[in-house]
Specification:
Blueprint lengths: L1 E7 L10 E6 L17 E6 L49 E2 L17 E7 L14 E6 L6 E6 L2
Antiparallel strand pairs: 1-2, 2-3, 4-5, 5-6, 6-7
């Protein structure tokens, strides 16, 4: 898995100062399932106090724990590894931001009722290459308790 970055949880969710560490598949096989929050091809790990969910990979018969290598590979968002919002010079709606309400490319696709947006990532402006389809957008969510997260994406 590739490390995308770490992002602060919304202030009223989970432990104070908790971060969501976001990873995305680097595998050719199973990449079709990387858009799905339960596809098993991505991981959002909340720390401190979070848990890694057991999800079923769509191409397997039995649930499998998500493996994350100990050495994160790939660039990070900023010098302190935490994304900082910067005002957009573009007059169009911002497609990359922390918290708030998602700007869906297609239909609403919350992982479950009550889940909150941690960060929305625009593949066209990220300082690293991600596979969110054709000029897609990634959405990182955390459950209402702040201990489990999911990544999904939508492409054009």
């Amino acid at each position: 898995m590739w490390f995308i970055g770490q992002f602060p949880l919304p202030a009223d969710v989970g432990r104070s100062g908790a971060l969501a560490y976001v990873f995305m598949t680097d595998a050719a096989r199973g990449a079709d399932y990387s858009a799905e929050p339960e596809g098993g091809e991505n991981a959002v790990i909340v720390q401190p106090g979070g848990r890694l969910p057991q999800v079923q990979r769509a191409y397997r018969d039995t649930p499998t724990r998500i493996r994350v290598c100990s050495d994160a590979d790939g660039p990070t968002i900023g010098p302190d590894h935490v994304m900082v919002e910067q005002p957009s010079a573009d007059a169009e709606r911002a497609m990359q931001f922390l918290g708030g309400q998602p700007e869906w490319l297609h239909a609403e696709e919350l992982p479950a009722p009550g889940w909150r947006l941690v960060v929305q990532l625009d593949a066209m402006v990220l300082p690293l290459q991600v596979s969110f389809g054709d000029a897609g957008v990634g959405y990182v969510f955390v459950d209402p308790t702040g201990i489990e997260g999911r990544l999904l994406w939508q492409g054009h």
